[in-house]
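Case 187 in the screening queue. Each case pairs one protein sequence with one candidate compound; here the compound is BIS(adenosine)-5'-tetraphosphate. For every case the pipeline is the same: read the inputs, emit a complex structure as tokens, and attach any notable structural observations.

Predict complex for case 187.
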Amino acid sequence: MFNIIFIGAPGVGKGTQSAFIEKDYSIAHIATGDMLRKNIEDGTELGKTAKSYMDKGELVPDSLVIDMLNERIQKDDCKNGFMLDGFPRTMEQAKELDKILAKLNHKIDAIIDIYASDEIIIKRLLNRGRADDNEETIKNRIKVFESQSKPVLDFYKDKVKIIKIESVGTPEEVYAKIKKELDLIKK
Ligand code: B4P
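Case 187 output:
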């Protein structure tokens, strides 16, 4: 099993890089943002609640996201390993993830701390233009990342290998840096 967590600001390239990893390492890509957007599209109760937070660039309440993740991580396609893209985003989520993984007897092999300047992030997201990619919401998402998600890195500091990657250059160039580090761990 090979299990990875991506931690990084909105639009820094977590989803983009996860797609490369999924292909090369044959592990499941679990993107909580994608799962929430699918719920919105399907008009589920979870989707209706999530939308009101996502539209403002706020985090969806922990209990909802944790239940969703707990169910997802036990699916068959995670047997070879998984990559968490966008989870955990709060200390509460990180603590609950520890409990979920202990029960399943799984561990995290590496955390990828992916970063870029606010200027680069804003430019990329405005370019993408998803429903929550307007300047006001993006700035709030960056603020929420700094206050609620960045502390999660401290939580893992002495427990898991943290790989720090600057997300500048083309997606392929960024991935080459990530792959080099992951291969050292996986060998
Ligand atoms: P997410 O869906 O996780 O979205 P994100 O952080 O905005 O994007 P990501 O970092 O994956 O960027 P991407 O690769 O797509 O979250 C959205 C919302 O869902 C949150 O605000 C929150 O409300 C909610 N949510 C999700 N998880 C949650 C949780 N655990 N708890 C509570 N709430 C949760 O890249 C962005 C753009 O940049 C793309 O257009 C891409 O093509 C481009 N790009 C990437 N790398 C590039 C590069 N190297 N060069 C040029 N462009 C690049």
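Case 187 observations:
- Residues 8, 10-16, 32-33, 36, 53-54, 57, 59-60, 65, 86-87, 89, 93, 124-125, 128, 141, 167, 170-171, 174 surround BIS(adenosine)-5'-tetraphosphate (CB under 6 Å).
- The chain has a mean pLDDT of 96.
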